[in-house]
Structure formats: C-alpha cells, structure tokens
Amino acid sequence: MTGVPRSVAEHRLNVRDGYPPIWQKKKGQAPERTKAIQAEVEKLVEAGIMREVYYHDWLSNPV
Q1: What is d(CA 32, CA 8) in angstroms, rounded to the nearest whole number?
Q2: pTM above 0.70, yes or no
Q3: In the chain, where are the structural domains located?
Q4: Chain mean position to CA 32
Q5: Mean per-residue pLDDT for 37-44?
C-alpha cells in the first residue's frame, strides 16, 4: 500500500523456493452468464472502479 511502511503492513506469497508454479484449469461459464459478467465488468471499468492490470503468466488465473 502506498504510504504505509513495510514494518506496519507487508504481503508475501506463501510459496517455497524451487517449486514450479502449478497451472489451474480454466473454468468456463454458460454463454449467457459470460455476457452478463462482461457487461458488468465494462460498467465498472467505465466508472473507474476497476482497471486492467497485467500480471505474470503464473498469476494469470486468480480465483
């Protein structure tokens, strides 16, 4: 978080060194539900509540 010292708040991923990332299977949605989700996301992006962020490949499927 911006402006908060690391001694107060710091986030770390609970991963061990030397282990490769494990890819999760992509889970699909029903076509009607996908359209509704996309419309809602577009509204949130236009309102400035959400924005597109790019992550590394191994973080590409957060659940």
Answers
A1: 44
A2: no
A3: 30-58
A4: 22
A5: 94
